[in-house]
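Help wanted!
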Amino acid sequence: MLAFLVSAIRLGMTFLLGSTGETIAEKSGHLNLGIPGVMCVGASCGCFAEYLYFSAVKTNIVPVLAVIIPIVAAFIGAAFMGLMFSFLTVTLRANQNVTGLAITTLGVGISNYMIDETSTIFTKGSKYFTASLPFADDLGWFGELFLSYGIFVYLAIAIALTTSFVLSKTKVGLHLRSVGENPATADAAGINVSRYRYVATCIGCGVAGLGGLSFIMDYLNGNWEYCIDAIGWLAIALVIFTVWKPNLAIIGSIIFGALYIASTYITGFGFAEKELFKMLPYIVTIIVLVFTSIRNKKDSQPPAALGLNYFREER
Amino acid sequence: MATVQKKQKTPLIHIVKRPQVAWYHSIIVRAVAIVAALAFSGIVITLLIGENPLEVYSSIFDGAFGTSRRIWNLLQSMAMLLCISLAVTPAFKMRFWNIGAEGQVLIGGLATVIVMMFLGDKLPLPLLFLVMTAASILAGIVWAFIPAFFKAMWNTNETLFTLMMNYVAIQLVAYFLKVFVKDGSGALRPMSEYGFPAIGDNQFILNIIIVAALTIAVYIYLKFSKQGYEISVVGESENTAKYIGINVKKVIIRTLIISGALCGIAGLLLVGGTNHTINVETAGGRGFTAIMVSWLAKFNPLYMVLTTFLIVFLEKGASQVSTDFRVPEDISNIITGIILLFIIGCEFFLQYKVVFRKTRKEND
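Answered by r_m:
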């Protein structure tokens, strides 16, 4: 049971980072369907940077650098994809759904190509990411449940809480939300709609890219697997599941993680039934989606201008 | 006090919407975009694999048209992608973002496989084909109807709903594969004896003919029928549609039923007419590519033939590049992604025009 929870939390952090990134973008009015591709790019850039770092220094590896270099690389690589997305949707006013899907195609291609060319095993680097606090083992179940994780779990929760705080309590967050709700009004109030959308999308993509890296380096202990895009779609689902609230997403992501791996931990089912079990996260999301739309409560709706581009001269 | 002349600040450039675009203009812009994209991806390939870009281009052509078998494969892939693109088009025209084509195709294919397995030896072939067709269409309709119903009744977000339905379909297929295939290999034996007949020597001709007929049918339906008109009115403005007495809910559900039925047919053709078996990769991401095909063609089924050609040509070409130069298969995704982004970007120059700041003389 404990192992199941720990595992669910570790996987959940990938969902959490992905969905926090998507939430930031969606709050600005960008429905970024490129997130799966962006997460792939984040993961591969991070792994690639680790590979370069290790081959550059050979033996004297500084643990702090071994963690920071991939994280920075993942963030920058993913943010660059976000820049591409915003250039097309904000500056060139292209359709967001189509652009997002194209970004996903490109991102999956780039990341798999990069990884094919280097290596698919990054266990050496992964050790630095999963290193936990030294006294965690001495504290029994408490230590294992709360303190046994690598840096990514704490980083993800910190990012989610910060995002939640910025969105709901600060002026920047208020401006960002107004851009997502009604860009014309925001523009009239003197808020630079384009700048907010650019920055929010790039930061959101960067955060989501970290999610991709956490999946490889933390959850899979450095073994590359070509399924990050499937995880990415679930991260988008998580945004709806948690009604655009990153602090709720902390719990939601753990639930998603648990549902995703439940089939491997539950005994007494055949192989076939386990496949049905893997449907759970998607079905739960559908139910939440239907439920929130029927209830039609004001604070659990998507941003009003989600998916719509803003052109000042078109009123 | 002297009145201070307030300095008016005009931005260097500003963007205005174009009223209308001449047909030659739109062709030129798109052609430039494709050429630019090809040039850019040529540079990328050269940087990645360090080969002469001209050789890479010739390898792309070789992969698409090299032998007559390759040409047939190209046509067959085009037919499959085109069929799914046709399916999503009526929904998109209505601004219903059905990104669940992947799942609708898979579930149609699954229905076909189930009919082949359980009725294959009980029914005469013509009747079997009829049952296969009915089952696949019905399955596709069910998969599209569910999100459409919730969209029509409670305005549930269809993009995310249909997306989730994809994975439910994938898991259903995975489940049935585990149930059907007892040996644990996970691969279902192709049931070629129940597949669609070959015309002449070629197995693909029938698929291609069916899709060609569907293309024309969808074109006529969207362009000349009353229902097609209703779809475009609902797409332009739901309020206008309500005002002129169109039952929007009915149109949404009806259009998605058509969309789902066409996806079911695509599943039928992929299983009954091509693979004679199914796996979770049978739709192979075409459901997503179809969205881009349809959008790039501006929802016009006849233009879609061109856009599917472009995309399938690149896919086939790029996979040839990857074998010729021993680089990962994923280069095809990179090239396709680049070209798509270029074409998506070029739409801007068709809809808007950039106006530079006029010289000061005019203002004074």
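OP: Thanks! One thing I noticed: The longest helix of chain A spans residues 63-91.
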